[in-house]
Design goal:
Helix content: 25-40%
Strand order of the largest sheet: 1-2-3
Radius of gyration: 15 Å
Structural class: alpha/beta
Number of helices: 5
Order of helices and strands: HHEHEHEH
Length: 124
């Protein structure tokens, strides 16, 4: 990648555009593989039951655990989870304990746990 060759950054963040299983088309696997990512921060729309734009087809959004397993099947490690939710009362700590991963709702919570895990796992 030209950016890497010219800038030689210590860290590159690659923003995904959609879920790995989004029915609107391929979005994530190419980034995981072609980008040769060192870790994944999974963003999950916890308040939605179905993929946006496909509600009438009732295409369910897989659970966070299923998405983490799918990411692992590509040989990539999920290092943290961000919750996409307008619910400021969502219990991210309970989910973090369940997954044994840092979990934050970046709309309402400090993202320091995400920065910390990036430093510990990728920038070591």
């Amino acid at each position: 990648m030209e950016c890497d060759a010219i800038s030689q950054p210590e860290l590159m963040l690659i923003e995904g555009q959609s879920s790995l299983r989004n029915p609107s088309g391929p979005c994530g696997s190419e980034l995981l593989l072609a980008g040769d990512v060192s870790g994944v921060i999974l963003v999950h729309a916890i308040d939605r039951d179905y993929f946006e734009g496909f509600e009438e087809l009732k295409l369910p959004i897989p659970s966070i655990e299923e998405e983490i397993k799918l990411i692992a099947s590509y040989g990539k490690k999920t290092i943290a989870v961000c919750i996409n939710s307008d619910n400021k009362d969502f219990d991210t700590q309970a989910l973090a304990d369940q997954l044994d991963l840092p979990v934050v709702n970046p709309i309402f919570e400090n993202v320091v746990p995400i920065i910390k895990v990036i430093k510990e796992t990728i920038l070591q």
